[in-house]
Amino acid sequence: MSDELDAETLEFAHRMFDLARDGATTELVGYVDAGLPVNLTNQKGDSLLILAAYHARPETVRALLDRGADHSRANDRGQTALAAAVFRSNAEAVRALLDAGADPDGGNPSAVATAEFFDLPEMLAMLRSG
């Protein structure tokens, strides 16, 4: 039995990742509510949540978290959704992730390390205040 996905399945998966990047929240969560794994990851280990956070889509971040997305999951480079949201200086997404219990010190580099490295004092203050 092959572990390879057929072209149609791969195309569908790529479309789901694009929905997360684009902030197409209603459409994406419709698929999640219908059975799409909320923690679906791409070939780089980026989850739907990480992609939504990186592309500054706080509504999508909240909707995925509400459906059980794993905020502690890191991609293949050790980055979490929280670090991605901090990198993008997206306070709404950072707040949603912190409220869901995301660890500011999780991942490598962590959200705290990201804020320090890129000199993002507002993000660092959010992370430290919880």
TrEMBL record:
Top-level lineage group: Bacteria
InterPro entries per the UniProt record, alphabetical: Ankyrin_rpt, Ankyrin_rpt-contain_sf
ANK repeats: 44-76, 77-109
UniProt keyword Repeat, yes or no: yes
SUPFAM superfamilies: Ankyrin repeat (SSF48403)
The UniProt record lists the keyword Repeat: yes
Keywords: ANK repeat, Repeat
PANTHER family, per the entry: ANKYRIN REPEAT DOMAIN-CONTAINING PROTEIN 39-RELATED (PTHR24171)
Protein name, UniProt field: Ankyrin repeat domain-containing protein
